[in-house]
Amino acid sequence: MTSSESQEKSQEPTTVPSSSTSEASQPQDVQPKAKVSSSDMEFYYKNLLPFRYVFQWLNHSPKPSTDFTMREFAYEFQSGAYRRYNSFDSLEDFKESIVKNNPSRFEVGAVYEINPRDRKSVPKSKMKPMEKELAFDIDLTDYDDVRTCCSKTAICTKCWKFITIATKIMDVALREDFGFEHIIWVFSGRRGAHCWVSDKRARQLNESQRRSVIEYMDVLKNKGTKRLNLRRPFHPHVQRSIDLLKAEFLDIILNEQDPWADDQAAFTALLKFPLEPLNKKLKEYWIENPGRSSLDKWSDINKICTDLSLQKYDLLAVNETKEELILEATYPRLDVEVTRQMNHLLKSPFCIHPGTGNVCVPFDSKNVFDPTKAPNLHQLQNEIIGWKGDNEVNDINRTSLKPYVESFGKYVTNLLKSEKNGKREREDESLEF
User: Fold this and answer.
1) Active-site residue 364, yes or no?
2) Which of 168, 319, 329, 395 has the fewest CB atoms within 10 Å, counting from its CB?
3) Domain assignments of the chain as residue spans, ordered by start
4) What distance in Å separates the CA atoms of residue 393 and residue 46, rounded to the nearest whole number?
5) What does the pLDDT look like over 156-214, one tens digit per residue?
6) In 24-105, where does DSSP find H-type helix?
7) pLDDT score recorded for residue 225
8) How far apart are CA 142 and CA 331, in angstroms?
9) Low-confidence residues of the chain, pLDDT below 50?
10) Per-residue confidence (pLDDT) for residue 33, from 0 to 100
11) Distance (Å, rounded) from C-alpha 370 to C-alpha 348?
């Protein structure tokens, strides 16, 4: 065990800055609680952020390598200032710089051919990103046309279900269709989720290859047009997604969001159906029977189809349109540039969201994650103050942050094992004649 590791594992309990404790409270939602001060952030960096795991996650080894030392980091400060092209020589250098500069958050960038801090001494053409985790970003504001419970920056457990289903669809595609293994999902701290893929194959993708990946995943690229115009029969990924989304659509969209309770919104949805007699009959029925829910109106489509004795071809067109409506409402809505651009930076796991004070914790896409119960900085400070157990226990283990750090640690351990095995295989291959 290194001296720094020993220090992290046995750190003495510390005093929480008094400036924040009077405002601290157990969070019940993901909206702002109390303002996060500079002293709050300093406390968090000194005592709670798991620097070693973040370092190993980005370094892919316990000892410093170019995967870390040639990587760009960016700082955002409470003043609004933004400083790019920071780089670090070691775990100790990394932690010392974060604590000293005390940013409101820090972001992770690509590994460069030239050390980022030396960029001014070389031509711009030399500053080429060589590797970077494959990343995805989902933001609930992109669902404002279908979520009725919240809008803009506000979220609740109802609309978080859009994120839940999105992570399931993407996780399956990344593992089964692309063969990636080292995938972690991270709460953005307010209204979204970030996905990081750390497989070596993923990190080595160039921008053209990343564009191909995001085009494969971005089924809604034609969203906003009258029809999605997806090729039939569906690609296996799209069909698998449809099969998963159909049941979720009834719960997430029709029951909880009820977006077509408003007749005008329902009339707009009808424009996507290609049969004028069906559209006319449904519109008349809804005008004559006001107050029908979205679930009722969805069932009305089948009822009116039966009443009209539609031909098989017309029924097929109706069902295809319904499938497209399901995709439009519930399929993952992705920020394409976050995935495509290698020089795009993304907030690190375990950062504090400056607007809410929430910790950007990792979560398992296979299990239910409740963003309203994610650890909050002021909550963590109160947990440390109220600790009644063994004084030898370090600060992380005194708080609700502990299971998230442990989960991330297991993920990092598996990643490092894979990297070590891959390196051994490459060395063995180089010895073959």
Assistant:
1) no
2) 319
3) 3-217+335-430, 226-330
4) 16
5) 999 999 999 999 999 999 999 999 999 999 999 999 999 999 999 999 999 999 999 99
6) 38-47, 51-59, 66-69, 91-101
7) 57
8) 11
9) 1-30, 430-431, 433
10) 60
11) 20
**Both tokens of residue 389?**
């157990």
In order, the DSSP letters of 224-243 are TBS-----SSPPHHHHHHHH
Greatest CA separation for the chain: 81
| Per-residue pLDDT at 427 | 53
Q: Which CA distances in Å does 349 have to 20, 106, 284?
A: 23, 9, 52
Residue 93 appears among annotated catalytic residues: no
Q: Which of 72, 131, 199, 395 is catalytic?
A: 72
Tokens of 156: 């609740």
Instruction: Specify whether the CB–CB gap between 378 and 35 falls below 8 A.
Output: no
- Of 40, 76, 131, 139, which residue is the catalytic one? 139
User: Backbone phi, then psi, for 141, in 5-degree steps?
Assistant: -65, -25
72 belongs to the catalytic site = yes
The catalytic residue among 8, 40, 133, 137 is: 137
Other beta carbons within 10 Å of 335:
19
